[in-house]
Amino acid sequence: MTRSRPSADEAAAAATDIGYPVALKVVSRDILHKSEIGGVRLDLRDEAMIRNAFAGAHEAARIHAPGATIEGALVSPMRAGGVELLVGVVRDPTFGQVLAVGLGGIYVEVFKDASLRVLPVGHDEIRAMLDELHGAALLRGARGARPVDLDALVAVIARVAAVAQGLGDALESLEINPLRVDGDRIEALDAVVTWRADI
Questions:
Q1: What is the pLDDT of residue 107?
Q2: pLDDT, tens digit, for every residue of 61-101?
Q3: Architecture of domain 3-77 in CATH?
Q4: Residue 194 · residue 162 · CB < 8 Å
Q5: How far apart are CA 134 and CA 145, in angstroms?
Q6: Element holding 22 (H helix, E strand)
Q7: Which CATH number fits domain 83-195: 3.60.21.10, 3.40.190.10, 3.30.470.20, 3.40.50.300?
C-alpha cells in the first residue's frame, strides 16, 4: 500500500494507516532520481519522524531542483531483506523497445549489472537474462537467504514488458526500481514513466 499525500498532516495520517515503519519520498515529475538529492527518507517510525522527513525532503528538493514542481510525498511501507532489481523498458532509436533487467535499488549505478534484450521476449529469454546477471546467485539464495521464486519473477517481468509494448510508440521509458523480490513476494516499490515529446 503506497499513498501520495500533499501535506505533512496527510503524510502522517497515511503512515498511521499503513503502519510503521515507513519510507517517504518527495513527489515531483521534474526530479527522477530523488534519493540523490535527499528526497527519500527511510525507516520512519513515528509521527514526529514523518513530519521532519516531509519537511526535510521538500527542502532538499527546493535546494537541489529550484525550478521543480513539488506535489507532496509518497508514503510506503518500509521493507527489509530480499533482492532489489531494476526492470525497465526504454525506446532505442535503432532497435525500438529494449528490456533491461538488473540489480537495482541504490546500487544500480554502482554495480551496473544488467542484461538487455530487444522486445518482444518470451519467458525462456527472460530467465536467461536473470541467469546472465553477475548477482544471479542472490536470486538463488546466496549465504542462506531465501531463494527467489524465479517462475513468478519471470512472469512479472514478462507482464512489465507486455505493458510497455501495449503503451506503444508514445512510451519513451518505463522503469521499476526497485522491484523487491523476497521468495515469492514481488513488489514494485517505485516506478518512473516518461513519454516521447515528439508524438
A1: 62
A2: 999 999 899 888 999 888 888 999 999 999 999 999 999 99
A3: 2-Layer Sandwich (3.30)
A4: no
A5: 17
A6: strand 22-27
A7: 3.30.470.20
